[in-house]
Design brief:
Belongs to the zinc-containing alcohol dehydrogenase family. GO terms for molecular function: alcohol dehydrogenase (NAD+) activity; zinc ion binding. It holds the Pfam family ADH_zinc_N. This is alcohol dehydrogenase. The protein is an alpha/beta fold. It contains eleven helices and 18 strands. The chain has helices at residues 44-51, 101-104, 145-148, 154-164, 181-192, 204-214, 227-234, 251-255, 281-286, 299-310, 326-334, and strands spanning 5-11, 19-24, 32-42, 62-63, 68-75, 87-90, 93-95, 115-116, 128-132, 137-139, 172-176, 196-201, 218-221, 240-245, 260-268, 290-293, 318-322, 341-345. The strands form four sheets. Strands 3, 5, 6, 9, 10, 17 and 18 form a seven-stranded mixed sheet that branches. Helix 11 links the parallel strand 17 (318-322) and strand 18 (341-345). It binds nicotinamide-8-iodo-adenine-dinucleotide and zinc ion.
Length: 348
């Protein structure tokens, strides 16, 4: 039976204290499902949302979180293909209109009426969360709910970004921010897609993880090495075929074209506050560099990213903490101290 109250992490407005307290269990509307969230990943986006880093307002009294994996406990009267007992996930895109030109073209993240979990609607930092039935991720029952949680944002986002990079099997992808949550999964998806990886991040823990656990071929420490020179020297002087920018700092967004190969693509994914992307015009033109953004993924990208995981190809390490410990996880994230992803157990 579904309780009437549950625990959540909630804050009034940006930078207000995050309170771990009891709130009502929401009721699904006709086209919605209610998911008993078992585990939720903590994405750097959740920290940006709390801090109000971006030029897009968050809802007041927000329950954050958008990597929630759990079990469906109730469905609205119009929902046909999701059943009570199914495993399902709350992802960043909670809902979209289905009718605009972007939705019609399966570019639903670009829908102007999109609902964003843990940002414009309540997300997964609670024990029971609502998602539109058309958008909740379908999770096969044999997949562990803790390990799949980070795939619901980080995994599908980086899988999509790698596709957007237009790199081919055998080519080299530089991953900037490779030791973080998105980064660790990028290294794994890149490998599964046949790419060679140069990981860029800092510190011995992330270096060890990237090289010995995730399978990157090279590691460049941005705090010690000359990143541009080192990536070029590792790629015969030409640079990486693609660069995936995941860092939460501006500098890489201003130098990535310099270690990207001619004809290559720089894919911007990280969203540091108030940052700008820039590149010198002359080399960008005469080396035919592409600079583009990539924003989460559509429902097919989601299911494909889950398929890679289901096939045993994605094994990025994650640490489990309690839902009640969210503020401590945010602190470690802010300090850049997390190698990989934290996943919260919502029962504690
Ligand atoms: O759809 C999207 N575009 C999307 C989806 C999900 C998340 C975008 N994001 C954004 C987040 O909002 C955030 O801005 O991607 C960014 C990365 O999220 P994350 O992976 O969850 O953050 P993290 O775990 O804190 O990892 C960031 C890593 O960047 C490294 C840090 O050391 C850390 O490992 N880093 C930094 I800060 N500066 C760096 C630099 N100069 C750097 N790595 C290389 N060079
Ligand atoms: Zn995210």
């Amino acid at each position: 039976s579904i309780p009437t109250e549950q625990y959540a992490q909630i804050f009034k407005s940006n930078n207000d204290p995050i309170e771990y307290k009891k709130v009502p269990v929401p009721k699904p509307g006709p086209d919605e499902v209610l998911i008993n969230i078992k585990y939720t990943g903590v994405c750097h986006t959740d920290l940006h949302a709390w801090k109000g880093d971006w030029p897009l307002d968050t809802k007041q009294n927000l329950i954050g979180g958008h990597e929630g994996a759990g079990v469906v406990v109730a469905v609205g009267e119009l929902v046909e293909d999701v059943k009570v007992g199914d495993h399902a996930g709350i992802k960043w895109l909670n809902g979209s209109c289905g009718l605009c030109e972007f939705c019609m073209a399966s570019d639903e993240p670009l829908c102007q009426k999109a609902l964003l979990s843990g940002y414009t609607v309540d997300g997964s930092f609670q024990q029971y969360a609502i998602g539109k039935a058309t958008h909740v991720a379908r999770i096969p029952k044999e997949i562990p709910l803790d390990a799949i949680a980070p795939i619901l944002c980080a995994g599908l986002t980086v899988y999509k970004a790698l596709k957007e990079s237009n790199a081919r099997a055998g080519q080299t992808v530089a991953v900037t921010g490779a030791g973080g949550g998105l980064g660790s999964l990028t290294v794994q998806y890149a490998k599964a897609m046949g790419f060679r990886v140069i990981a860029i991040d800092t510190g011995s823990e992330k270096q060890e993880m990237c090289l010995n656990v995730l399978g990157a071929e090279e590691f460049v420490d941005f705090a010690k090495d000359d990143v541009i020179a080192k990536v070029k020297s590792l790629t015969g002087g030409l640079g990486a075929h693609a660069v995936i920018l995941l860092a939460v700092s501006e500098k890489p967004f201003q130098e990535a074209t310099e270690y990207c190969r001619s004809r290559g693509t720089v894919v911007c994914v990280g969203l540091p506050a108030k940052a700008r992307v820039s590149a010198e015009v002359f080399p960008t033109v005469v080396r035919m560099i592409t600079i583009k953004g990539s924003y989460v993924g559509n429902r097919l990208d989601t299911q494909e990213a889950i398929d890679f995981f289901a096939r045993g190809l994605i094994k990025a390490p994650f640490k489990v903490a309690k839902l009640s410990e969210l503020p401590q996880v945010f602190k470690l994230m802010e300090e850049g101290k997390i190698a990989g992803r934290y996943v919260l157990d919502t029962s504690k």
